[in-house]
């Protein structure tokens, strides 16, 4: 899949330049770092959509990862610029799922795609409903 067949409408995008520290001994991005790239995109997406994680936590909510997955399609090298696309693909009152695509900006090749699913917890670590205003925003945008 290339970016030509991928429609980025309704996706949030963050650009990431691969640092030397992101690579492994073979000179390609270490596989776990794609989850870090996805987190960068997710943090920016939630900030644009609602508010920062810091503010969400100050309101008494934690957003805990309960599942994550990544499919690696091609390798990426030091100094490559990746466009990391993210979107909310599913939500309930207590859970939210984000989908991601990492696309090489220069070649438009799909490098990796994945997801993270999160649940909301209160400060005591007990599952809880997401903030009502966030649920309303997601519902109004017809994310589902």
Describe the protein's architecture and organization.
There is one protein chain. The chain has helices at residues 33-49, 53-58, 132-140; strands at residues 12-17, 61-72, 81-91, 95-104, 110-122. The protein is an alpha+beta fold and 144 residues long. The chain has a single domain, classed as Hotdog Thioesterase (Thiol Ester Dehydrase, Chain A, Roll), CATH 3.10.129. It has a five-stranded antiparallel β-sheet. The longest helix has 17 residues, at 33-49. The mean pLDDT is 94.
Care to give the gist of this entry?
The protein has 144 residues and is α+β, with helices and mostly antiparallel strands. It contains 3 helices and 5 strands.
Query: Which sequence of strands runs across the widest sheet?
Result: 1-3-4-5-2
For the termini, the CA-CA separation is 24 Å
Radius of gyration from CA coordinates = 16 Å
Fraction of residues in helices? Answer: 10-25%
